[in-house]
């Protein structure tokens, strides 16, 4: 910085928090050019800082034009893909409750609903609020302590998404590249299967790890091994399998039965060389809570404890990779 830049700097001293974020400040030919480090600020924080800086520089002689560049937030972020081999196994239910349990464990968590065939997170997470866009980036809404963006927020509710692969991948990209601020873990609820969306996620955003959800049925498990295979082949570490709907607890007598069989997940996980991270029972309370937009992980009691334990295992897995 030169002597000419001094009036800029003294004006910026009047803006709280601005001085330590200045990467460069130049005043030349009537133009003030600033580069500001915006790390850790969300869209409204960046907008407020820019507004305050412009106000402070308005009276500086020779600064007829002010150009402000905010550097992108390059914070390390863990992308955790949640996949399944087939539909209807409860992947969205597990993703939502896992995201909440991770947030309750003290992490800053975002949830992307990339399930193009049935974006159900607004329903499960109990928020149909439409997200805003700032500087061409979508700003997540916040619900149950988790930031969230869903393909379901981009289309009218109830309208089926008949997008082809590239369109769907493009829409998912807009969600992942949204303004996630200081989010540490971004949980991606993928569509079921091993198609274009999963491939484009792996190629463009390289998840740090993947979790696979399956029911204990043999057929679901065979499909789950395909999903594990896709991540393995593309060098995304699979930290484990979540067995959902594993055992039905009768709400009247408490007896546990196994409508989808028992022991299959353990066996399949053993064959694939991945651990079973947790078992989520098939309960009426989980189904009702999901339909009502009150995810059990956000409450207390046995269902919440199941997801808290799952979150702890997932964090261990993330630390180990
Ligand atoms: N552990 C559970 N106990 C009871 N009901 C459950 C459980 N897990 C999921 N469900 C219910 O099963 C249905 C399907 O769940 P969900 O939408 O999470 O599945 P999915 O695998 O994401 O499906 P999709 O194929 O649409 O992606 C929902 O009605 C949900 O409430």
From TrEMBL:
Organism name: Sphingomonas parva
Keyword Protease: no
Species lineage: Bacteria, Pseudomonadati, Pseudomonadota, Alphaproteobacteria, Sphingomonadales
Task of the protein: Binds and transfers iron-sulfur (Fe-S) clusters to target apoproteins. Can hydrolyze ATP.
Pfam families for this protein: ParA
Coiled coil stretches, renumbered: none
Protein's UniProt name: Iron-sulfur cluster carrier protein
ATP-binding is among the record's keywords: yes
Signal peptide: none
An example Gene Ontology molecular-function term: ATP-dependent FeS chaperone activity
Binding positions for ATP per the UniProt entry: 85-92
Quaternary structure (record): Homodimer.
GO biological process: iron-sulfur cluster assembly
Similarity-based family: Belongs to the Mrp/NBP35 ATP-binding proteins family.
Entry keyword set: ATP-binding, Hydrolase, Iron, Iron-sulfur, Metal-binding, Nucleotide-binding
């Amino acid at each position: 910085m030169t002597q000419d830049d001094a009036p800029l700097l003294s004006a910026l001293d009047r803006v709280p928090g601005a001085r330590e974020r200045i990467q460069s400040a130049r005043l030349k030919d009537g133009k003030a050019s600033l580069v500001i480090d915006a790390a850790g600020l969300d869209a409204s924080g960046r907008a407020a800082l820019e507004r305050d800086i412009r106000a402070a520089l308005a009276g500086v002689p020779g600064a007829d034009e002010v150009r402000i560049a905010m550097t992108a937030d390059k914070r390390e972020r863990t992308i955790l893909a949640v996949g399944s081999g087939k539909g209807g196994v409860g992947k969205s239910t597990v993703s939502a409750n896992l995201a909440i349990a991770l947030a309750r464990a003290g992490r800053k968590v975002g949830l992307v609903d990339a399930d193009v065939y049935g974006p159900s997170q607004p329903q499960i997470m109990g928020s149909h609020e439409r997200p805003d866009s700032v500087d061409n980036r979508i700003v997540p809404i916040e619900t149950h302590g988790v930031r969230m963006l869903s393909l379901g927020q981009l289309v009218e509710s109830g309208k089926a998404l008949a997008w082809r692969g590239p369109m769907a991948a493009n829409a998912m990209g807009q969600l992942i590249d949204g303004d996630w601020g200081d989010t540490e873990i971004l949980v991606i609820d993928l569509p079921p299967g091993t198609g274009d969306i999963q491939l484009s996620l792996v190629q463009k955003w390289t998840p740090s790890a993947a979790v696979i959800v399956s029911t204990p049925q043999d057929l679901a498990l065979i499909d789950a091994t395909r999903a594990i295979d896709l991540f393995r082949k593309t060098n995304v570490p699979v930290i484990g399998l979540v067995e959902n709907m594993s055992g039905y607890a009768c709400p009247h007598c408490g007896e546990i039965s196994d409508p989808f069989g028992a022991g299959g997940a353990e066996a399949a996980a053993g064959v694939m060389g991945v651990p079973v991270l947790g078992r989520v029972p098939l309960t009426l309370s989980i189904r009702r809570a999901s339909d009502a937009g009150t995810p059990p992980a956000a409450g207390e009691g046995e269902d919440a404890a199941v997801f808290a334990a799952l979150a702890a295992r997932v964090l261990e897995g993330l630390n180990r990779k």
